[in-house]
Structures are given as C-alpha cells and as structure tokens.
Amino acid sequence: MEWFNLSDNVNLLALIGAAAIILITLFTAGKYFKQMRDDKSEGELLEHNWDGIGEYKNPLPMGWAVMFLLTIIWAIWYYLWGYPLNAYSQIGEYNEEVASYNAKFENKWANPDHATLMGMGEGVFLVQCAQCHGILGDGMAGKAADLSAWGNEKAIVDVILNGSKGLGYPLGEMPAGLLDEDSAKAVAAYMVQEVSKTQKASDPSLVAMGEALWATCAACHGEDGKGMMGQSPDLSSYGKPAFVVDVLNRGKLGHIGNMPAFNDGRLTTVQKEAVGTYILSLSK
Ligand code: HEC
Ligand code: HEC
Question: For a pocket test of ligand 1, which of 159, 182, 226 has the largest count of ligand atoms closer than 8 A to its C-beta?
C-alpha cells in the first residue's frame, strides 16, 4: 500500500501526526468526561439564563484571546500573501512559458536582415492576415484594405480625399476632402520625399507645391509630421514597417471594416516588423 510506505518521510510524519491527534483527542475527551462525572459546579453565575441553563462568570482566558486574534491576522496574511491571491495558476504558468519562449525567439532574431524579415513576414502574413487581405494582399475585392495600394503616394491621396478613421488617436477622425485632388497629389509627393523619406516623388516638380500646402496637415500631424506627441499618427514612419506595427498594435475600425488589433501577444515585436516589411513590399 503506497500510503503505508514508511520509508517515505512525508507518509511517516503524517502517520505520526494522525496518531498524536487520536491520542490527544482521547486524553482530552477522557479528562472532560471525568470532570463531568466528578466535578461539583460552583462559582458566580451570569444574569442571563436559558430555560434553567446558566453560564458562569469566567473571564476570557488570555491565551485564548491572543490565539484568536493571531488566527485572524494569520488568516488575512494567508489570504493576501500566503496562498489564495498569490497562488499558482495554470494560466499564470502558461503565460510565463509563452513569455519565456517569446524572449528566446526575440533573442534568436535580434538582428534580422532583410531576407529574414521577408521570409518571416510572408509566413506571418499567410497565417494571420491572408484570410482577410487575400493571399496576394489585394483585400479580396474590398473586404479589407488593398495592401498593394497602401503605404504609397496613391494611398496618401486617397486618405486626403476620403479621410481615415478607426485607429483610435486622440484627434479622432481625419476628415475627408481636406484638399482637392491636385493639391493632394502635391502633398503626397512632398510627404513621401521629405517627411517619411520612403520614395522619390513620382513627379518631383510637385514637391515644392506640396510643401507650401503642408500647413493643412501640420495642424494635426505637426510641422515635422510626427503626430504632435501621439495626438495623431506619426507620418514620418508612413510607408515603413513602424507604421504597420502601430496599426497592428491599435487595430482599425475604419470605413472598409474592422481590422483586429494584434496586441495580445500573438505576434512578437520582430514578427510585427517582419510582416510590416513584407506587406510594404507588396505596395506598388
Ligand atoms: C483634423 C486633423 C487632421 C488633419 C488636418 C490631417 N490629418 Fe491626417 N490624420 C489625422 C488623424 C486623427 C489620423 C488617424 C485616422 C485614423 O484613425 O485612421 C490621420 C491619419 C493620416 C494618415 C494615415 C492613414 C492610414 O492609412 O492609416 C495619413 C497618411 C495622413 N493622415 C495624412 C495627412 C495629410 C497628408 C494631411 C494634410 C493634407 C492630413 N493628414 C491632415 C488627423 C488629421
Ligand atoms: C479580420 C480581418 C483582418 C485580418 C485578420 C487582418 N486585417 Fe488588416 N485590415 C482589415 C480591414 C477590414 C482593414 C481596413 C480597415 C479600414 O480602413 O476600414 C485592414 C487594414 C489594414 C491596414 C491599413 C491600415 C491603415 O492605417 O489604413 C494594414 C497595414 C493592415 N490591415 C495590415 C494587416 C496585417 C499585417 C495583418 C496580419 C498581421 C492584418 N492586417 C490582418 C482586416 C483584417
């Protein structure tokens, strides 16, 4: 019998404890039985009386009172720090394991080169993004953002003409129709060449005109386009993986639909950067 295996210290201690409890119980019960048989009751009674049953006027024994208070203190300690609120949980252990695995993963890919990011990004895209954006990233006929038309000059023009909403910035929505189409093209040229520095403007002659119109945008995005300390998106990262990482961290309840946030640990930092690199390579 397993539990009777006396070479196991814990079993042995438990058995000794059980024997001690039985002995003490027998001894105490015996003592009180004897007292009930032999003792003559005497002493001062309290005033109250329940159908003839009285109660002696005994002071609270000091040791008992102290034990009582200590028990309450111990119970509070036990509940707050000792066990229940500080307890082991499967979810906690799972989270710790995931965190430590992710740390290893991040460590392994601490300095990814472009090819690594593209490979990893394609993998993440096919698993996490393609079901909405389509395997080609074209948004499956308007079901999600067409990523081949995102993050470039054309997309900026589109945002200026049609507005944007759903990233949850303090300034809220970017209103539609801030500029007419020609002015929007000029601003887009200026933005990609001078603010985000991602591309040469497709028509360099527009850049100076765009700069002159930039004040419209600076009102909300700041003179340097960096978003005025988090009031609106940082346009200096537009067209770069960092902007995609921001979208992934926020999600977007936009005009097209609901882009879920990926801020729950499903993707590590390097995977977000990788998928950002990959989808921007789709941008035409
Ligand atoms: C009234 C304030 C305001 C003005 C003016 C404004 N923006 Fe915005 N812009 C925003 C906000 C807020 C967002 C984030 C919108 C969202 O939640 O999608 C944004 C988003 C953007 C985006 C990112 C869109 C995306 O796909 O996520 C671009 C690009 C942009 N603005 C460019 C501009 C340009 C260029 C101008 C100047 C013509 C401009 N904005 C003027 C407030 C403004
Ligand atoms: C559940 C469907 C869904 C999934 C999954 C999804 N997206 Fe989206 N995504 C959308 C929709 C819908 C939009 C358009 C939101 C809008 O502007 O109305 C969008 C928009 C975007 C945009 C443009 C954001 C902007 O500021 O305009 C980017 C970039 C993007 N998604 C990247 C990704 C990446 C990368 C993944 C995978 C890690 C992903 N999406 C997964 C539905 C999805």
Answer: 159
